[in-house]
Amino acid sequence: MPDLATGAKTLTDSLEILVRLASATVSRLTGERIECAVILNRVKRVSATAGTDSQTARFARLEREVGEGPLSEALTGSGTVAMNRVAADFRWARYRPHLQDAGIDSVLGLRLSLGEGTEAALAFFATGAQAFPPHVVAAARSFADVASRGLRLVLELHAASARATDLQSALESRTSIDIACGVIMAQNRCSYNDAITIIATASSHRNIKLRTVAEGILASLPGGTPRTHFEH
Q1: Is the dihedral of CA 147, 152, 156, 159 positive or negative?
Q2: Are 47 and 39 in contact (CB under 8 A)?
Q3: DSSP secondary structure code for residue 226 in this structure
Q4: How much is the pTM?
Q5: Three-state SS annotation for 25-84
Q6: What would the pLDDT profile of 88-122 be if each residue is shown by its tens digit?
Q7: How far apart are CA 138 and CA 8, in angstroms?
Q8: Domain coordinates of the chain in residue numbers?
Q9: Please, is 186 exposed, middle or buried when counting C-beta atoms within 10 Å of its C-beta (0-12, 13-18, 19+)?
């Protein structure tokens, strides 16, 4: 399984590692330089794309604009699509001229198998005709199957990291509010419920978050905002 996580700080980094590995793998199979692009679609998220060079990255973005191409067809069709003579093929009328202008004559699209609500595909580009015969397609398909597992793992790692960040933010927010309530209770000799009501009222009137009100209260203390263990 390809390692898409080591050295990757963001999901985009992982996608760039993926296309480089895919390009190198298929280039060895064909004996010529093969460029690669990837698209990742997730529910309620902006589509992410990457390419081995600026041109292939542009091809991936172009598909989102024109609604057709190897990535789109791989995602909506059988999962595998090949065009081995771009100049003689009549598919993708809006997309194909861009391939011809770039001197691309062979294209291969492969869907990656991910979880529900997430889809991705790889596209390979070659300047020579007939670059993707059946044995190359089969080998590239095998790579895509293995890469799918690597990408699923990366997505799980990023999701876990996001949950941890959200949890820390929630804990920090709760701590700030609780400390601010303590300050109000001491100053006004009131209960915790009265203190939280004061903060909530200020939040509503000023149309800002509870945490922002609380942090403002803490910042006004003589010694400034108290440090919490989250900041250590």
Answers
A1: positive
A2: yes
A3: P
A4: 0.69
A5: HHHHHHCCCCEEEEEEEECCCCCEEEECCHHHHHHHHHHHHHCCCHHHHHHHCCCEEEEC
A6: 898 999 999 999 999 999 999 999 988 778 899 99
A7: 29
A8: 11-161, 166-231
A9: exposed
Q: How far is Cα 232 from Cα 150, in angstroms, rounded to an integer? A: 34
Measured CA to CA, the distance from residue 59 to residue 72 in angstroms comes to: 11
With tokens 């597992």, the residue in question is: 149
- Alpha-carbon span 149 to 144, nearest angstrom: 9
**How is domain 166-231 classified at the CATH fold level?**
Arc Repressor Mutant, subunit A (1.10.10)
Tokens of 52: 């081995």
Residue 137 contacts residue 29 (beta carbons within 8 Å): no
State the CATH architecture for 11-161.
2-Layer Sandwich (3.30)
